[in-house]
Specification:
Blueprint: E1 7-8, E2 15-16, E3 20-24, E4 27-31, H1 34-41, E5 57-59, E6 62-64, H2 67-72
Antiparallel strand pairs: 1-2, 3-4, 5-6
């Protein structure tokens, strides 16, 4: 058995034998850690700037980490759950 070729992380540039691929919208990305994958691929909240790692909230073509941030930017119909105070 020969050595496995190393794959280079597209975020940090690390050559790593346990790198993994994520395929999104027809493009294959290579990362050495979930941290690097999140930094490269997760959308950024339009209000607070944090990475949207969970489901997040979309209003039009803008992404938010939560309903609070969406409301702060004027998307006043978005709530965290039905029946919850806005």
């Amino acid at each position: 058995m020969g050595e496995r070729p190393l794959a280079r992380c597209e975020t940090c540039g690390n050559d790593y034998d346990m790198a993994f691929e994520i395929r999104a919208q027809g493009v294959t990305h290579v990362f050495d850690s979930f941290e690097c994958a999140i930094q490269r691929m997760a959308p950024v909240c339009e209000h607070c700037g944090c990475r949207v790692i969970g489901h997040g909230v979309q209003a039009g073509d803008r992404w938010y980490c939560c309903a609070h941030c969406a409301r702060e930017e004027g998307a006043d119909q978005i709530v965290d759950r039905v029946g919850a105070p806005a």
